[in-house]
Task: inverse folding
């Protein structure tokens, strides 16, 4: 029996603005724009309070200021956003072997390998893992293909989860406006509305030959397929799985190497379990510590003989602990296996044996 595809689309909520609010709590309750504050500057992103005034991405800064004179504008910190994006992608890699990043803050995950599990519970676990790693929220759409998953991720923002009901995909999307069809921008939307297509259901009900005459061969076929909930595009990974990690934020701070060592044991087990499931071995081990004050993190790593054994991973991690500082309380520890190789590949022979 064919197993239906299970695709997640994860989209971070107001990504740049959320990072600025995380790092500067005084910005949390004010309308906020990330962008260049100049005559020709544009909005890179806006928090949800700013959006209440009609401010949105790609809008000229001067227009945004007129809509909300009290809006706070901060310049973008792209290196910081890229670093957080890497953290997010590492979380994704612990959930799925097949990931297609679309930008710094969104990606598709093929979750078909989790067939039989509750998709909503998987999505909640993914949200929790992203929140723990970054202190940021995300929204997730769940469906049998990329179009439906991406459409759903935008329906309950922020921090929402939406799943298309199985077997009712076409009915679910029918009442939505035509602009929700992937690839429909302002000009195409205007064209569709002028032709009397107000909803996705209107496009689905249209005669394909009539659509071809009105919109042309390629666009008509594309929109007709999507309106019938059909999308055969596969997930195209742009990066190979590079690491498997596990980490925990503690309610009570840790203070000694001994406490950290004990805390790392379950993470070694988690990493080993994922490596075995994916038939991979790690050729390196990395330990991360995050301090309570300022959320400052330190990492240490070492190259090891490729392994998927929990005890070996833990013992190798122990060799790194003396290089950390313990003069500040610790709120998070994590262990990652990296430089992943196929567990079934033959080991390279040594030239000499002493």
Result:
């Amino acid at each position: 029996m064919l197993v239906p595809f299970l695709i997640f689309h994860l989209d971070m909520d107001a990504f740049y603005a959320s990072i600025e609010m995380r790092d500067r709590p005084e910005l949390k309750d004010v309308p906020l724009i990330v962008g260049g504050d100049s005559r020709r500057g544009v909005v890179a992103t806006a928090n949800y309070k700013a959006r209440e005034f009609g401010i949105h991405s790609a809008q000229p800064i001067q227009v945004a200021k007129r809509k909300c004179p009290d809006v706070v504008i901060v310049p973008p910190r792209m290196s910081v956003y890229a670093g957080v994006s890497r953290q997010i992608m590492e979380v994704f890699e612990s959930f799925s072997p097949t990931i297609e990043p679309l930008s710094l803050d969104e990606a598709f995950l093929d979750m078909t390998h989790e067939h039989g599990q509750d998709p909503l519970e998987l999505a909640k676990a993914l949200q929790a893992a992203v929140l723990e790693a970054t202190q940021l929220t995300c929204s997730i759409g769940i469906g049998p293909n990329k179009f439906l998953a991406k459409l759903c991720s935008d329906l309950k923002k922020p921090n929402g989860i939406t799943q298309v009901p199985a077997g009712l995909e076409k009915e679910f999307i029918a009442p939505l406006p035509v602009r929700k069809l992937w690839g429909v921008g302002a000009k195409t939307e205007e064209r569709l509305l002028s032709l009397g297509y107000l909803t996705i259901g209107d496009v689905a009900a249209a005669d394909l030959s009539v659509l071809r005459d009105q919109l042309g061969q390629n666009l008509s076929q594309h929109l007709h397929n999507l309106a019938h909930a059909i999308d055969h595009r596969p997930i195209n990974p742009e990066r190979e799985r590079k690491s498997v990690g596990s980490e925990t934020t503690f309610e009570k701070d840790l203070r000694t190497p001994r406490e950290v060592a004990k805390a790392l044991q379950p993470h070694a087990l988690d990493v080993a379990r994922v490596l075995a499931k994916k038939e991979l071995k790690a050729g390196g081990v990395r330990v991360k510590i995050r301090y309570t004050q300022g959320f400052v993190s330190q990492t240490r790593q070492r190259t090891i003989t490729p392994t998927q054994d929990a005890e070996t991973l833990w013992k190798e991690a122990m060799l790194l602990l003396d290089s950390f500082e313990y003069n500040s309380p610790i709120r998070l520890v994590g262990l990652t296996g990296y430089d992943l190789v196929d567990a079934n590949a033959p080991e390279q022979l040594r030239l000499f044996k002493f």
The two ends are 54 Å apart (CA to CA). The domain at 16-77 is CATH 3.40.1170.60 (MutS, DNA mismatch repair protein, domain I).
